[in-house]
Design goal:
It is built from 11 helices and 6 strands. By secondary structure, the protein is of the alpha+beta class. It has a 4-stranded antiparallel sheet. Strands 1-2 form a two-stranded antiparallel ribbon.
Amino acid sequence: MSFIRSFCCAALLVSSPIIFATTSSAQENKPENKITVADVNGEAIYLEEVMRLAEKLPTEYRQRPLESYFGGLVDDVIDSRLAAVAGAESGLSENPGVSRLMEVAAMRVLAEAWIAEQVNKAITEDALTATYKLYIADNGSREEVKARHILVPEEATARAIIEKLTGGADFAEIAKTDSTGPSGPNGGDLGYFARGAMVPTFEAAAFELEPGSFTPEPVQTQFGWHIIKVEDKRVATPPSFEEMVPQLRQNLLNQTLGRILEKLRASAQINKRSFENIRTEAQAAQAQ
């Protein structure tokens, strides 16, 4: 049995992750508007069923051309249809355990469909445009600094260097001779970088400086002690709306999903047992 087939068979036994595929309109969901990929005993198998299965494959498979594994997916759907019919005919669907699993699977499908519908209602062209306008208006998130630094292992050494710099010594030349960092031979030049590119302590110190100034106190990170000099500041040109659409859509999806789930939880009574409590009960049950 191929890996794809083994994986897909296993996927039938567990609940799938929530899939945020674009939901079809009522018109598109009519059978006459669906694409048939096969039929089993006169019952059609539609493309959307195969593609939902494809979305559950590991990333390494989904990165391959679809045609390289599409046939295997269709065969998996055919096999599951045949096995499901055989199971129903055997009366297995009346088994309490199986019946419960079927209920859980049905609830999961309903939840996925409802959440996808709510999310897609929120991710409109107007919403994407508004989010983009907020992004380009926030200059702080796109601010960059051009800096140099000198890295040394001891605080005392860093303070001695600051004294030299205060006395007029050339920052780049000291970096070349004294810095232990990889940028030392280049005079400590780090080029331009944005927020999030450096460790937090280093970043905070660098963005507080005005162009032409250096840190009056050594800055400690896990790498050692730094003296940082900022040479320039700028606000990076924002990407075009078209370039940012995938990121904007993902951000809106995450925000909308968070709001939906938070609202649902706020109106529900939820009691969660601790993991330790559950494990203790499970271990006791196994020991019996």
